[in-house]
Structures are given as C-alpha cells and as structure tokens.
Design goal:
By secondary structure, this protein is of the alpha/beta class. It is built from 18 helices and 14 strands. About 40% of the residues lie in helices and about 10% in strands.
Length: about 500
Amino acid sequence: MTTFASGTDTLTRDALTVLQPGFPGTIAPDWLLRRLGEGLASVGLFGRNIASAEQVAALTAQLRAERDDVLVAIDEEGGDVTRLEVRTGSSFPGNHALGAVDDVELTREVAFELGRRLAACGVNLNWAPSADVNSNPANPVIGVRSFGADTDLVARHTAAYVTGLQAAGVAACTKHFPGHGDTAVDSHHAMPHIDADVAVLQSRELVPFHAAIAAGTKAMMSAHIMVPALDPHHPATLSRRILTDLLRGELGYDGLIVTDGIEMQAIAATYGIECGSVLAIAAGADAICVGGGLSDDETVRRLRDALVAAVRSGDLPEERLADAAERVRSLARWTASAAASGAGGSASSADGVGLVAARRALTVTGGEAFEPLTEAPYVAAFTPVANVAVGDETPWGVAAELARSLPGTETGSFTGDAAGKEALAAAGERRVVAVVRDEHRHAWMATALDTVLAARPDTIVIEMGVPQSPPRGALHIATHGAARVCATAAAEIIAGK
C-alpha cells in the first residue's frame, strides 16, 4: 500500500484526501506525485491531460506507482461533453439522444461500454451521469446533457446509466444535486436560482436522484445553485439542509458527495475557493472538485491549509473532515475491489453500440421525399458560443463525416446577424446543409435559417442540440446531440449510405 511521507500529520492528510485537483499536461508533474505521497487521494483528468487512450493508461499507471489506491476521476458524459475523445468527438451519443430512443437497456449498454473504455485507461470515477430534468428550454448549460424534460424518463435512464457504468468497474457520480435543469443561468458564470416550491422539487428534480440512489450510485455531485424552498441562505454545495438533512437524511444516501468545480464563479466570486471549500465540507460534502480552471500546486496548498486552519479554529469539526476523508477512502476501496474482480467484460461489436444508439436517436422529417445527395454540398455551421462544460476544443457538425461519403464537401462557421447572408455567399451554387445547435435559444440562428431557406428552400437542416423549434427545410434531422457518432448517423441519411 501507499507509504505516506514522514511528517505528514493526520489532519493534513485528511485535508489533502478530500481534494480532487486537476493539473496541466499529459504526464503527472512532480508536485502532484509529491502530494499523493502526502495524502492526496484523488486526481481529476480534463481534456488538456489527454492525447490518446494509451497515453492516459500510462498516466494513470504513473499515478498508481505513487499511490496504488488513487481515485482517477474524469468528466466523461459522452455526447457533447467528452474528455477521452476531446479532439475528435465522442464515440457515444449523450443523454438526450439516449432519452430520445428511450430504451433503458441501450442506455445501460452505452454506459457499460463507456465505462469499460475508461477502466481500460485506468480511470475509476466518472463525474456522470447528469440526472437533471431539463424543464427549462432556455437552460444554457444542461440541454442535451439531460435525458430529457420528462421526470420519469430521466429517472429510469439515470438508473440504467449508473448500473451500466458501475458494472464496468467505474464509480458513477450522479449530478447535479438537487437538480440544475430549471434555470437559465450557467453556474460556471453566476449563481442560478431555482424558484420551484418543495412539492415541485420533490415530484420533479429529486425523482432521478432517488432512482440513482436506488441503483447504488457510488458518488453524487452537488450543484452551485440557490434553491430557496430548500435553503434560502446557502447554495446547495454549501447547504447543510440540502446535503446532510435532505440528501443523507431524507433520501438515505450514504455514498460520496463531491462538489461541482469549486472555482466556478457561482462559488469563487461569492465566497472564494478557500471559504467555499470549508463551508462545503462543513455542510456535508466529502470531496472538493477543483482543477477545471485552477490546476496548480498553489491551489492544492491553499485549499489544504484552509481546511486545516478551519479545524484548528473550530470553524470545521475535525470529525466531519475525518468522516469526509474516510468516505473518499471507502470509494477507493470499492474501485480497487471492482478492478480486482475483473469488472469490465468484453467489448461491444466492431460497429459499436454508440453508433447504433446514435442512429436510433435520429428524428427525420421530410425523409420520404428526400433524394440522397450525390454531389458535395456546402455545410454552413451556425455556431453558438460553447458553454464551459462542453468547451470549444471538441469539433462538432457534420462536414467531416459527410466528406467521407461526398469528397469535396466544404464548410464554414457563421454567427451573428449576418450569418445567413454570409453562408449563402460562401455556398455559391452548392446544395446547402445548415447545421444548428439549440435554434430555439438563439434568435440570430433562427433568422439565419429564415434567410437561407427563403433563398434556397432545398436546404437540409440538421439540429444538433435540443430540437425545440419546429422542423423545417427540405430534410430536417434532429440528432439530439453533437457527438461525432451523431454526425455520422446524420451523414448516412444525407448521403444515402
């Protein structure tokens, strides 16, 4: 087992144990390895840490050479939010596509295969799935990350996802408790408010989390949101009423509670990361996720010292910190046991369950009269600003996939009031394929489609976000997400493959 550095006292080790930091680069820096020797028990991987599956496996082996029971976490939802395939797009459709199919066995199979690939790379904790009910169509951060707007649908697919992922030996971390769906604010930037009353929350937001607990989710992630009906004074991540009284007490959850990224502005700009971390642990959280934005040794030291100081000043009970650290170690023991038992199974077929699911998720309007293209089109991507969770590193759209079947396909990205006119000018005489993402949330995008369709009614429209707007165009394909496999499935329809 791991031998801790001499001179590292129990309190300091516990303070390090509850942190889940990130780091730069594709190999572990010396400071991170040193902290593992001092008691750090978890590490988070992000897109910047990943070049290939083989490189990730080497990286996790490097971490385990320093501490054999380390929890290696990742934000791998599949679909739009992918880290393992951050530069190519995911081999798996996201939650919204799976919800559109509404086959819980398919969801379980997708989660199992995703978990199997993570386990093969040495990753044993996945900050997924999202159990948020996307009840607000204007939601800028959840959207296709949710299984849908129907509570029961979200609940049954959340449970299936948890079951599949953990059958592969990877701990699920269901998020974002108590539910981030009914908001039009992104907590990466500001503090959202959920103003629903308790009855609505119990019948809508909390139902999928009940299902996740019943399915045995090993971890749960808190949301940086104000829910006045539950706690009028503190956001969920910092609320004892929500994390301890509700989640642990009323819902009976006994697993690990992880915060969403503590450096997100909803917490950092309001409380600061040190105070926020202390308050989160005091409220009932067991692990502090940090590293999406702050990823250096100084951040780890600041949070460690803040927790130690809070215990010594009496602001944080020592037994609460010790309990949190023990929950981290308990999860580490489960992952070690799952790995030793050979969880993971065999790979899916060469065609891939991800592509099968993406094909089944398509909603095609106008297909009965559509003649597949035989000449290379022009793909006009009407591109919104990506939210922080998705990021702008991952390619999206259908041009690359269409070019495989229709060589010579060209593409351009357009945004703003003149997007439609600019797209038409760039397309020239070529057939236009217009790609949108959440048309209903962007007035400029709807206007661009109006302009293009008025001039070129034979335009093919592909919606790769939530298909809230009415379908239009000579052919309309709703993919329910922008994963690479969703683009592949759409391209097959357009090219008649």
